[in-house]
Amino acid sequence: MHPALDVRSLSIAIDRVPLVHDVDLRVGAGERVALVGASGSGKSLTAQAVLGTLPPGSRVRGVVELGGRAVGASAPRQRLGRVAAVQQDSLAALNPLVTVGAQLVAALRASRARGSAADGGLLTRGDARREVVALLAEVGIEDPAGTLPAFAAELSGGQRQRVCLALALLCRADLLLADEPTTALDVVTQARVVDVIRRRLDATGQALLFITHDLAVAAALCDRVVVLEAGRVVEAGSMRELVRRPRHAYSRALVAAASRRAGGGSADRVAAAASASAPLGAVAAR
Predict the structure, then answer these.
(1) 21-to-10, 24, 43, 76 alpha-carbon distances in Å
(2) Chain Cα centroid distance, residue 28
């Protein structure tokens, strides 16, 4: 079986400035991988290369394959059904002229149409609306039915982020790419969102590329981790192994920062989150 994502020797330059250098990144079918690094490390540029959304003037070398098929650097349509994304800029990710409800219902019905035989046939608008409302409630939208007629600009940043997560989950692509999906959320909502992602992936078997600066959040969800510093991979391997025995100085700094946020001075509490059964909220409580 082909991996959900295979990135080989990816290098990116913008305005002739090299920013990403020879990145290798592989996400197997059904695997959950974290891409971790500080702001400016090249995480989001790598995500944009996967999604085909790099800015004009970008120069790209290397190979990006989704499901065993090479995709062009600027051809988002080649990704249809192969990758669904929660992007960092939630306002830009949503259509400002279409209500949230219309976007979610359309995405769900289109997804079911692509896989109608496996999913039990086409959805009516009414059935799709009920499923959308249930998912919005699941991701922590307090008034899901009341949110449907709203436009993106009428929602808070945290609400938009959760709507974008719901939109990506509805698409049921082979790979879910989540770029800092918990950044605009409080700790309680972060835990809820991580739990929703985990349960949805358990149910669908989708692969995950989880992009974040927060190793503690990544450890609560992912089995494997790739660490980026200044556009280069400095460490990669098992999440559990990295949080217990980080080899690179930058990885050690990430573990130390995550340990402080988890409420302790060692990696033990972060390592506890690397168990697939440990919810994020439980880590801080230990």
Answers:
(1) 6, 9, 12, 23
(2) 15
> Among positive and negative, which fits the CA dihedral 144, 149, 152, 157?
negative
This prediction's pTM: 0.87
* Cβ pair 6, 63 in contact under 8 A: yes
Helix, strand, coil share (%) of the chain residues, nearest 5: 45, 25, 35
Task: List, in order of start, the domains of the chain with CATH numbers.
Answer: 5-277 (3.40.50.300)
Q: What is the pLDDT along the chain (286 residues), one digit of tens a residue?
A: 799 999 999 999 999 999 999 999 999 999 999 999 999 999 999 999 999 889 888 999 999 999 998 887 655 566 767 899 998 888 888 999 999 999 999 999 988 886 544 455 578 899 999 999 999 999 989 999 999 999 999 999 889 999 999 999 998 889 999 999 888 788 888 888 899 999 999 999 999 999 999 998 999 999 999 999 999 999 999 999 999 999 999 999 999 888 877 665 445 556 555 444 344 444 433 3
Q: At what angle do helices 100-114 and 125-138 cross, to 10 degrees?
A: 110
How far is residue 56's CA from residue 41's CA, in Å, rounded to a whole number?
A: 20
Residues 105 and 123: beta-carbon distance below 8 Å: no
